[in-house]
Amino acid sequence: QVQLVESGGGLVQAGGSLRLSCAASGRPFNSYAMGWFRQTAGMEREFVAAIRWSGGSTVYADSVKGRFTISRDHAKNTVYLQMNSLKPEDTAVYCCAAGYRVYSDYMRGPYDYWGQGTQVTVSS
Fold this sequence. Notes:
Layout: E1 3-7, E2 10-13, E3 18-25, E4 33-39, E5 46-52, E6 58-60, E7 68-73, E8 78-83, E9 92-99, E10 113-114, E11 118-123
Parallel strand pairs: 2-11
Antiparallel strand pairs: 1-3, 3-8, 4-5, 4-9, 5-6, 7-8, 9-10, 9-11
């Protein structure tokens, strides 16, 4: 049973930083892609960033490129999303996801497992 548990969300002022964590368990993730998505009420879920567990290649949405960094720690089975220069429009519930059939270099999907999400609120 794959489990993804996010943490690290909170309230921060515009221009500030947060680091989200996604602890993964349940199976080896070597062949997986790990993604971060975000969603606000009434809006579609939006891709943020993704990383291949093996090899570490990354991809970002244009809206976060240069501000967010995705990384993974093999020893801790954890994926991180470092968010800098946060803006009010970054406010959302952030979820991590794991997929073993993510073949495209764009790594938009499909993702098979999802965490519950963590709230990020950026005040102006």
